[in-house]
Amino acid sequence: MDRFGWVPSFGGNISARLDGRSIAITRSGGRKGFLGRDNIIAVDLEGRPLNAGDRPSAETLLHCHVYRDLPEVGAVLHGHSVAATVLSRLVTGPAITLAGYEMIKAFEIHHTHDVRVSVPVFENSQDMERLVHDIGPELPRHIPGYILRGHGAYAWGRTVDNAMANLEALEFLLQCELETLKVRGLSAA
Ligand SMILES: [Zn+2]
């Protein structure tokens, strides 16, 4: 994620399920391209640290939301890419529709031959409890991820590798949409 430029400065966070009741997640702060063991903490599925004194990042609640709603998910990745940030500001509706791209088939859970998929875009907020409420109790089933407007993308999968493959596919598609808008001009948005 760092190599692709998706976690600039202290942005983004990375988590993996430990068991049915806890996850490992990057702590608040820390540059994600330079992680050591000290940068990762364990929290329960409500985002409470297992070791008192550990300080989870505010967005830990969004990761926990995914693990609670989707028991098959083993990893959640969140980055602050230029494509997700810019495109979600240009497209004003509640979703970005991706159509006609071969790469749509890359999504782990996208089994159909339909080459149109709608990526939910939720309004960004600094209030994570409100954000979880706005996203709703049921995460999208048709695509393993969503976008926070002007902020970045979340993607998940059964394993860290699966989650990364899904994030790569999503970021590739968002980058294609952004490049298309650049070539066509912003009026196309
Ligand atoms: Zn973020």
UniProtKB/TrEMBL annotation:
Catalyzes the dehydration of methylthioribulose-1-phosphate (MTRu-1-P) into 2,3-diketo-5-methylthiopentyl-1-phosphate (DK-MTP-1-P). Pfam families: Aldolase_II. It comes from Rhizosaccharibacter radicis. This is Methylthioribulose-1-phosphate dehydratase. Keywords: Amino-acid biosynthesis, Lyase, Metal-binding, Methionine biosynthesis, Zinc. Zn(2+) binds at H78, H80. Binds 1 zinc ion per subunit. InterPro entries: Aldolase_class_II_sugar_metab, Aldolase_II/adducin_N, Aldolase_II/adducin_N_sf, MethylthioRu-1-P_deHdtase_MtnB. SUPFAM superfamilies: AraD/HMP-PK domain-like. Its cofactor is Zn(2+). It comes from the Bacteria. The keyword Metal-binding applies.
